[in-house]
């Protein structure tokens, strides 16, 4: 698959000096529900940025992480698999797909760490968190060791795992659109030791924080959150939160800036909840986020937070289906936001892909997964 510009006669002007590009998708996964009959993909990309297809045969592509060899690992949530995508000749395209795990229960979050006992891959599945010890480079791993078991299933099924300061953080979504959960495990971020012991509630009231990431500026945990449905097109707005230990972020009782929920708002004091650090258009479904301080993008993109929006499904006017750049200052403080890559949502309301996770490589490029088309894109400067 090649990335090629359309003829000048077909270009359309987009604010922010964006250019129209055309990617010919020749071998789409037959399981794609949103674009299985598409023959091409048109995206609006900044004219100083290059987007190419890194891997095009990874159906249900979701969460990503790089190992200590600079190799991209990818979870394929609904395919029950984890795949490695080496690029040994450094031509910007994955050489092959290497199976790491198959037949698993909706694996999603991935994280790597070097311990005294060896090098490990952590995988957050729907009902548990496991780790695999690497027994030989580059791709030989032992059997999964269960660290955390008994995570409730159903409802929001993705589990995201991050590691910092010898602690493991697991984000677990709610079982429903809006309800009172019967376990504190749901709609929360939990903290564990790296062996899965000493689990404790870190933060609550987070309906579905699929994307979590530690800020390289402050060391704090940031996360995007998907708000509840069926309150119209405009509310509740999607959230970017700074997730702090012991805090409650509102769901199901309150949303946005402590607005009581019409179903459960009378059961909690909204003044006790944390307000979002930033908000976006409702129902866009933010799933991935990545801090960017410097790398191979042009210098103007330094100090950014990139967020991928999977796209709405119940909005009268569809929204999302794009990557947004949150502009930060040199201290990592939020200034504003702007669209970075758009076009998965067509003017007629049809969809030609759904971005999921964004990840910065050790060499300074961005990678973006798309679970509808089953591809991983590479984003770099021209």
Give a quick precis of the structure.
The chain is an all-beta fold and 382 residues long.
Structure description:
- By secondary structure, the chain is mainly β.
- It has a single domain, classed as 6 Propeller (Neuraminidase), CATH 2.120.10.30.
- It has no helices and 31 strands.
- Strands 9, 10, 11, 12 and 13 form a five-stranded antiparallel sheet that branches.
- A hairpin with a 4-residue loop joins strand 6 (about 70-75) and strand 7 (about 80-85).
- Residues about 1-40 have low confidence and may be disordered.
- Write down how many β-strands occur, each being a DSSP E stretch of 2 or more residues: 31
* Cα distance spanning the termini: 18 Å
Helix content: under 10%
- Classify the fold: give the CATH topology: Neuraminidase
Helix and strand content put the structural class at mainly beta
Our count of helices gives 0
The largest sheet, given as strand count, sense and whether it forms a barrel, is: 5 strands, antiparallel
Number of domains: 1
**CATH homologous superfamily classification:** TolB, C-terminal domain
- On the 0 to 100 scale, the average pLDDT is 91
What is the C-alpha radius of gyration, as a whole number of Å? 20 Å
CATH architecture: 6 Propeller
Give the amount of beta strand, in percent: 35-45%
What is the CATH level 1 assignment?
Answer: Mainly Beta
- The low-confidence runs, each spanning 5 or more residues with pLDDT under 50, are 1-39
Described by the principal axes of the CA atoms, the overall outline is globular
């Amino acid at each position: 698959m090649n990335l090629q510009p359309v003829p000048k006669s077909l270009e359309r002007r987009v604010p922010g000096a964006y250019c129209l590009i055309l990617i010919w998708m020749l071998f789409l996964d037959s399981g794609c529900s949103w674009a299985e009959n598409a023959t091409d993909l048109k995206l609006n990309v900044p004219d100083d940025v290059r987007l190419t297809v890194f891997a095009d045969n990874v159906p249900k592509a979701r969460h990503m992480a790089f190992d200590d060899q600079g190799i991209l690992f990818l979870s394929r949530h609904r395919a029950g698999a984890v795949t490695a995508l080496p690029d040994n000749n450094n031509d910007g395209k994955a050489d092959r797909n290497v199976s790491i795990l198959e037949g698993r229960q909706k694996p999603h979050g991935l994280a790597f760490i070097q311990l005294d006992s060896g090098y490990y891959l952590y995988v957050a599945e729907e009902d548990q968190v496991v780790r695999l010890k690497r027994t030989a480079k580059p791709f030989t791993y032992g059997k999964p060791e269960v660290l955390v078991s008994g995570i409730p299933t159903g409802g929001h099924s993705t589990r995201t795992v991050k590691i910092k300061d010898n602690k493991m953080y697991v984000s677990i979504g709610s079982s429903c659109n809006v309800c009172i959960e019967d376990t504190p495990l749901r709609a929360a971020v939990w903290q564990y030791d790296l062996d899965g012991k000493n689990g404790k509630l870190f933060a609550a009231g987070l309906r579905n924080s699929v994307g979590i990431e530690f800020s390289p500026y402050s060391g704090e945990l940031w996360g995007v959150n998907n708000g509840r449905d069926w309150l119209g097109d405009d509310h509740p707005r999607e959230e970017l939160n700074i997730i702090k230990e012991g805090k409650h972020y509102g769901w199901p009782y309150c949303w946005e800036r402590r607005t009581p929920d019409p179903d459960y708002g009378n059961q909690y004091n909204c003044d006790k909840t944390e307000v979002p650090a930033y908000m976006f258009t409702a129902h866009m479904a933010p799933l991935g986020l990545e801090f960017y301080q410097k790398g191979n993008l042009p210098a103007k993109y330094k100090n950014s937070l990139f967020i991928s929006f999977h796209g709405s499904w119940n909005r009268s006017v569809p929204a999302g289906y794009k990557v947004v750049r949150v502009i930060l200052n040199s201290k990592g403080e939020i200034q504003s936001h702007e669209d970075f890559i758009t076009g998965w949502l067509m003017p007629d309301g049809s969809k030609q892909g759904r971005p999921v996770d964004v990840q910065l490589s050790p060499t300074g490029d961005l990678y973006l997964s798309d679970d509808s088309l089953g591809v991983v894109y590479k984003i770099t400067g021209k």
